[in-house]
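Lecture 7, part B: from sequences to assemblies.

Below are the input chains for today's worked example.
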Amino acid sequence: MLAKASRSSGKGYAIALTAIIALLALGPFYLSDAWLGVLGKAYIAALFALSFNLLSGQAGMLSFGHSAYLGVGAFAAIHVMKAVQAGLFWLPTPFIPLSGALAGVLAGGIAGIFACQRSSGVYFAMVTLAISELIHTIAPNIQELFGGETGISSYRAAFLAFNFGRESHVYTLILIWTVICAIVMWLFARTLFGRLAMALRENEGRLPALGFNVYWTKVVPFAISGMFAGIAGALLSIATESANYSLFSVDASTAVVLHTFIGGSSLFLGPAIGAIIMTVFGYAASDATRSWLLYQGLIFIALMLSAPRGIALLALDTIDDIADRGARALLRALLIVVAVLLIAMGIVMAFEIVTQILTTEYQLAHTQTGRWNSISVYRVKWDPLSPFTWLVAIGSVVVGVLALRRYGQRTGPAP
Amino acid sequence: MDWFVISLINGAVYGLLLFLVAAGLTLVFGMMGILNFAHASFYMVGAYAAYALSSVIGFWGGLLIGPLIVALIGLIVERYLLRPVHKYGHASELLVTFGLAFVFQELIKAVFGQFLINYAIPDSLRFSAFTVFGTPYPFYRVFVALLAIVLFVALIALLRFTRMGIVVRAAVQRPEMVGALGHNVSAVFMLTFGIGAWMAGVAGAVGGALLTTSPNMALEMAILAFVVVIVGGLGSLTGAFFSCLIIGLLTTFAVSINVSLADIGRFIGLGDTLAALGTVATLKLSTYAGAMPVLVMLLVLLIRPSGLLGERK
Amino acid sequence: MSAVLEARNLVKNFGESCIIRGLSLSVHEGEKHAVIGPNGAGKSTLFNLLTGYLHPTSGEVFLREKKISGLPPHLVNRAGISRSFQITAIFPAMSVFENVRIAVMAKHGSRFGLFRLATRARKINEDAWHLVERVRLTKVAQKPAGDLTYSEQRALEIGMALGPGGDVLLLDEPTAGMSRDEAAYTVELIREVTSGKTLIVIEHDMSVVFSLADRISVLVYGEIVATDAPQAIRANQRVQEAYLGEDHGAA
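Predicted structure of the full complex, as structure tokens:
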């Protein structure tokens, strides 16, 4: 729920949001193609996360295999693109995501029929994961549909003035679709059905006594969520001009869960924010380290333990706090941020050094020359044998933890 | 004929190995209401720990110490990761264990690399136990099965005949009451969790050498474990046992059946029509073998949603 | 008077324990019927059986001669029986108004109508407001239901039971945990909102029972040991032994 102060400044947030979107929309004028590509992927991840949260944040259902619907949408789109390419079919590129929507809603509906059979959320989580792994296992064997191990590729057809060969065209297409879908999902939460889905999360057992067949109350949101995931998948196919069965892997399913809860499930845009931050970070970090996924997982767990409502709400609460209490609250917030950064940097440093040592190249060099070579972290070379190195790493963790204990008492209300 | 009998035994062995993992999962859920998504990760860590240790202290050393390390990890997880989020509700527990499974997988990849490693059956155990219609049957598989049975019996004995077992069984039904009676419920939970983790670790230590050891093994095992509890009914050890055997047998038989839908179709004259459907129909059943457990699960969900033996209320 | 709700020889076993053993009950149209009994007698189980939340091991339940035992709870509700819960079952994060709106939604029917924006659903919203007024929660209508006081929540619980519009109402310990004044207030509320309807109420508070009920059934160990007018129950020896004797003078 939005913090009390922000309710009155709801208009303020709406204006800020519009400004940000406008700024992003103008991206092609000031961002490089590389950046446009990364942001495009980030928006797709955001849309995917919003579709996931339709189930988890609103209806309380954790779909641990959501990549199935992303993948289905992606393949539907790529097949349509190939059909257009071959002249069998005509659908302008901007409308291709509709094919993803159709595929996604069907897949979501069918999966929902199985997954919603038992009322317990635990079963739902297990079944959704199993279904997605099923598709992942079978897909590479079905050449016609999924292109085997290499996947299927096509290319974007031009439409009117847009030749879609340019990164900026693709970027704008993705942004438009993402914003439209986000608005539709936001409106859905405000329909009667959306309220019903929320009641489902609040107290499922009450609903049958009020005349509702809870089973369908779950399957419908599942299908709708699948629809938006399918659109995200289609956008991905458009962006990469390819689709591969690895889309069905558990990694994509895990990523969306992490993004959603790192950003925060109870705020509508929380998952989108989490997805964008993590995707952009991921691109930046994957050059520097091969363990980015691990760090993402650790961030997720750390947040679930300390700030389960997610970063977005944490930030909002902090802003409210600063608005209420002024400079002292700001100082405290900054100290906490610094403390967390220290802990993170210390852990990352130690971990990077250890993993580097364990790589075969390092081991090889070690056996050959007998030396423990220095390892580069944060663009500085560290000698793994020197106590100074470990003092820095462990020290920053210790300092960070101590600082957190001192200043971090109130990390926000319990969810 | 020998194929049939061997597949039967193999299927039973596989099912028993599966049960070592599923039992811990079922027990923890029955008692604490938590579905530990990272339970199969204990299986994986057990395999890797045993592998790492075996190069230093031999296979038996790895088998002994590896699962103990896993049990320790399990205790730490329960105490410092699960207990704090218990107050946030079931969803948070699911999420934390889900994230944990991911972290374990990435950790293993970081330390051991992302490809499978050669955790092999020790030479001392590479002999044949008996012959089936002239084909030698490997002792190691028998060893795995015997180990699983011994542990299963020990578990039942522990639950039924020891004081601790009685407390555990009571805690499954009425944790608050057990606490009110003065027992340390937290300790009981932690111990149960640790035992479940230990069993999964043992399964990994023996199973990793038998099957493949790779960072992906946790996910594969997790899916199987989930299928088992859905088919057998969550919370029921007996249900889990039988569905483990069923899954084990089905998968093993499927792997060795080199028949496709089109082949069957040929029998009744529809061969060409079916073959025209494309790869789906011409794929051999053995390729689908990996998907069999989930297909069974889907079938059960449609026909008998409450599982074979029903659910714990 | 015809029997609107009838249970015949209901039996309910949970594994080895028999909770309801051969229970028969007949409630007339428009009657206010109370069910009392010691703790653990099976009163909530009875409600669950009557409303489809549990299926009987044997025996049947009839609503106006039509068999409803074995139906899922949402169909039982649509047939005309509504219930409240002993442990308040509301939607805490949603406002009082929204809670009531969910309760009135189902009877307004259409599947696709549910995709309307909530603010635009005029009839449903009007219906919901009327109900909020009837249970006298207008002042707190916009508050999150989880923030209400205990008796306000119980009033909401009753309101939600009224939402689906059935004319057989089952209330499970509506005044549990209330002070004398709160209980009296709630009783008055119940009388008002159930006029013209059939009411079955589980209660422990004898003053509530005697001020509401036309007839009382006494449930002991899964069986009904007596069904009669309040004065007769008060005088009944068996009942006194089993139940009233302990409870005499309780708040």
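Note for the exam: Chain C touches chain A at residues 51-53, 72-74, 77-78, 82-83, 85, 89-94, 98, 101-103, 105-107, 113-119, 121, 124, 160-161, 163-164 (CB under 8 Å). Keep this in mind when comparing with the next example.
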